[in-house]
Design goal:
CATH superfamily of the largest domain: Divalent-metal-dependent TIM barrel enzymes
Largest sheet: 8 strands, parallel
Number of strands: 10
Protein name: L-rhamnose isomerase/sugar isomerase
Bound molecules: alpha-D-psicofuranose, manganese (II) ion
Structural class: alpha/beta
Oligomer: single chain
GO biological process, one term: L-lyxose metabolic process
Radius of gyration: 21 Å
Number of domains: 2
Number of helices: 15
Strand content: 5-15%
Strand order of the largest sheet: 1-2-3-4-6-8-9-10
Distance between the termini: 51 Å
Organism: Microterricola gilva
Keywords: Isomerase, Manganese, Metal-binding
Helix content: 40-55%
CATH class of the largest domain: Alpha Beta
Shape: globular
CATH topology of the largest domain: TIM Barrel
Order of helices and strands: HEHEHEHEEHEEHEHEHHEHHHHHH
GO molecular function: L-rhamnose isomerase activity; metal ion binding
Length: 394
């Protein structure tokens, strides 16, 4: 290993991982939503909790909103509130999956009235972005069918393209649309945006302000996700990540918990493809790094702290790959040598150097321990009674 931690330490400055507001609410499975003492009752309390994650790690300056879960009367006031507690408002996520009208689809629906309702909801999200200063509109659709023959797959694609165009045309110059794909759930026969290729086809047709969102939990088991990362970066269309980890389905567990090696491989391709670091340096459009997780049985704030630390740890290891040596090994067909170079970086324990990196920047060496010692969890448990149910579980 010729690359040292000191030589990559500066590249860790400015790393930003956006937190999802919904990670701070109670969540669960379709079997049970357990409530956690101290769970936020309002978006303001969620922002206050998210600010703890940023305060202790320096890694999470933005919080993503989900509309209507985080609906408020005055988004400019919410923006000011966020700034007051030390965070910014980030990606605005639309929601067309919890309304009876969308039983058979939203942007793909056969009924023009329902389609327009779904389009109008996205217009409302863009209004929110204008007030919050958010740059990204994230669209994930529950649209799909359960039985062969239930819907006209081709017709649904055509209607989707038309609806997306109407939404895209409303974006401001500095705003982006990111289209998330998912191969199953809640529809189980087909979904209308099942894979990166379908998302890519739509966002490419829309134009230069539209990108693909890659949620790490939305692939079939065994999918080589880092290949998708490499390809989308090559095509200039990787807009954002929803990070989480999974053992079986869309588990939404802590990123890096199930398969740290996969997270390392993803981060290596991000670095290799110019998706990491300031946009001007990389020459590509910036990639937004977001978490999309739920904390069903563990405390939510430490769950989010652990998550951003996991991303930072695998980013550091990915930056440690000796790219010059790797290039040489690859060029000479040194299969095992090349593999060893990558594995050397993966096996490098960066926890000590990262603790020192934090201390040198006025952050606690161990953010998990600092949170546990802060008394914040006991304070919110005492102060907040009747936390919000997740909108998923409700
Ligand atoms: C859908 O599974 C998804 O990953 C989308 O990103 C939604 O916005 C999010 O979950 C909501 O929890
Ligand atoms: Mn997601
Ligand atoms: Mn998901």
């Amino acid at each position: 290993m010729t690359t040292t931690f000191d030589s990559i330490a500066g590249q860790l400055d400015g790393q930003a991982i956006e937190l999802p507001s919904w990670a701070f609410g109670n969540s669960g499975t379709r079997f049970k939503v357990f409530s956690t003492p101290g769970t936020p009752r309002t978006i303001q309390e969620k922002l206050t909790d998210a600010a703890q994650v940023h305060r202790l790690t320096g890694l999470a300056p933005k919080v993503a909103l989900h509309i209507p879960w985080d609906k408020v009367d005055d988004y400019s006031a919410l923006r000011e509130f966020a700034a007051g507690v030390g965070v910014e408002l980030g990606t605005v996520n639309s929601n067309t999956f919890q309304d009876d009208d969308y039983k058979f689809g939203s942007l793909t629906h056969t009924d023009a009235v329902v389609r327009q309702k779904a389009i109008d909801h996205h217009f409302e999200c863009i209004d929110v972005m204008n007030a919050t200063g958010s740059s990204d509109l994230k669209i994930w659709l529950a649209d799909g069918t359960n039985y062969p023959g239930q819907g006209d797959i081709r017709g649904r694609q055509d209607r989707l393209a038309e609806s997306l165009q109407a939404i895209y045309d409303r974006l401001g110059d500095e705003q982006r649309l990111v289209l998330e794909y998912k191969f199953f759930e809640p529809a189980f026969y087909h979904t209308d945006v099942p894979d990166w290729g379908t998302s890519y086809a739509h966002v490419t047709a829309l134009g230069e302000k539209a990108f693909v969102c890659l949620d790490t939990g939305h692939h079939a088991p065994g999918t080589n996700i880092e290949f998708i990362v490499a390809q989308l970066l090559r095509l200039g269309k990787l807009g954002s990540f929803d990070f989480n980890s999974r053992f079986y389905a869309d588990d939404d567990l802590i990123v890096g918990a199930a398969d740290p090696f996969q997270l390392f491989r993803i981060m290596y391709e991000v670095v290799r493809g110019g998706g990491y670091g300031p946009a001007t340096e990389s020459g590509t459009s910036p990639v937004a790094f977001m978490l999309d997780q739920c904390h069903n049985v563990e405390d939510k704030i430490p769950g989010q702290i652990r998550s951003v630390l996991n991303v930072q740890e695998m980013t550091a290891r990915a930056l440690l790959v000796d790219r010059i040596a790797l290039d040489a090994a690859q060029a000479t067909g040194d299969v095992l040598g090349a593999n060893a170079i990558l594995m050397d970086a993966f096996y490098t324990d960066v926890r000590g150097p990262l603790a020192a990196w934090r201390e040198s920047r006025g952050l606690p060496a161990d953010p998990m321990a600092a949170y546990a010692a802060s008394g914040y969890q006991a304070q919110i448990a005492a102060e907040r009674v009747g936390g919000t149910q997740s909108s998923w579980g409700a």
